[in-house]
Amino acid sequence: MRPHPELRQAATEGTETAGADMNPGDQAPPGSPQTGENVCRDCLGKGIRADGSRCETCGGTGKVIELVGDA
Ligand SMILES: [Zn+2]
Questions:
Q1: Which residues contact 20 (CB under 8 A, 6 or more apart)?
Q2: Model's pTM, two decimal places?
Q3: What is the CA(23)–ligand 1 centre distance, in A?
């Protein structure tokens, strides 16, 4: 019952691509310091674009993570 070396390698790979939790509209991973949720500008917080398709900027959540510089 030894830990598999391959599993550990897969875990470290995620840090390089900044994680799968991020959406294209996010400026930082959720939970990062000096960031906050903001309404997605592409779908105005609906998660659905004007043509009825899912908003890819926010991943359909209607929210994006943005950097807040004034903290
Ligand atoms: Zn959106």
A1: 14
A2: 0.61
A3: 9
